[in-house]
Each structure stands twice: as C-alpha cells, then as structure tokens.
Amino acid sequence: MTRLFIHVAILCALSTPTLAADLTSEFDARHKTCLEAIADDAQEAYELALQWRNEGGGRRAKHCVAMALFGLGHEDEAAYRLDALAAGADGGSNETRVKHYAEAANFWLVSKESERAYASASAGLKIEYDHIDLRITRARAYALSGRYDYAETDLTSALSLDPARADALRYRADARFQQEDIEGAQADVEAALDLEPTSVETALLRGKIRESVRLKALSAAVETLNDTVE
Fold this sequence. Notes:
By secondary structure, the protein is an all-alpha fold. The chain has helices at residues 3-14, 17-40, 42-54, 58-71, 75-87, 94-110, 114-127, 132-144, 148-161, 166-178, 182-195, 200-229. The longest helix has 30 residues, at 200-229.
C-alpha cells in the first residue's frame, strides 16, 4: 500500500463521521502504545514514531517523537518540538495545545532554560489563563532565573484556584524563604506537609528553613553576648 493511497484513505475516512471517529480511536490507541514503548526502549520507540510520522501519523506521532527524544536525554530538542507542535496548524484542540506547552515548559526546566520555560508556560496561559499546572511551572521558571517575587505571585494565583496543591505550597515556601520571609515560608512548608506528610522534598525544605532560623538565632545570641562583654 503506497503512502499516497494511505493519505487518500485517511481523507476519505475523515469525510464520513463514523469512520473519522474510528480513525481517531485507532490513532489514540497507537499513540498510547507508542508512549508506553518509550519506557522499554526509547531508541526503538523513537524510530517507530518517526516512521509513523512519515506515514501520516500527524500530531500524535509528532508528540511521540518528542517524548521519545526526551526519553533519550534530548530534553531541549523535545521541548522545541513540543512548542512547535502546540503552535502549529495540527496542534489539536486548545486543551491539547495547553498540554503540549506544559510538557515543553517542564522539559525546558529540566534543561535549565528558564527563559524558554517561561515562554512556553506563558504561551499556554494565553490559551487557558487559570491553568494551575502552567502557573506552577511558570513560577518555577521565575525561580530558576532568581525572580522569586514573580514566582510567589504565580504560586499565590495557583493556590487561589486550588488551596490543596501541596507542590505549589512547597514552591511558594521556597520562594518566600529566598526572599527572607521566614514566617511565610514556615507557614507554607507546614501546610504542604499537612497535605503530603511523606514528601521528602518538603521535609528537606523544612529542615533547611529550620536550620536557617537556628543559625540566625545563634548569631543573634553571640552578638548579644559580645555586646554584653564589651
């Protein structure tokens, strides 16, 4: 069966609602299989995804190519492709585009590319302003670039939408700690641990905050003692 015949068959199928639905279901199933294969053998999954894309797999195949690249350790290339997919003509619904922007932003963060992570998250937020995960991701991009005040603002917005997001509380605790708002940081980290008592990351952050408080108290005590001696 030639590629031309495949393309013609797809166009014909899409002209009939029932067949179009069947085709979408088939593509979704293949997409799921493709993504699952990455965990077993990312290189093979990448090659199969490329073949599928070249055969007319569309956005699902392109998405699997990007995710396989991430699995192979090429985070920046994966993020670039996801951004392109989200912005492209075949990016899918707004919900799908937002998902791809969120994935791209997170991959840029893995690559330590704060500005690109910010750009991806902001592009997604232009589509869905109240998307909590994108708010949190953009906050992390701000924090990575040292703009902790902006990070805190985005995290506060996320928490206004869902106060029970332990990850947002943890990130805001860190942002506040970096700005020397110890009281605010302590409140957030304790609230985060109330929601997720077994979180190692949050426990480590609490330890970091407590150690800072201890050292400041010790420094103040030494200074007071020195003043008394003098």
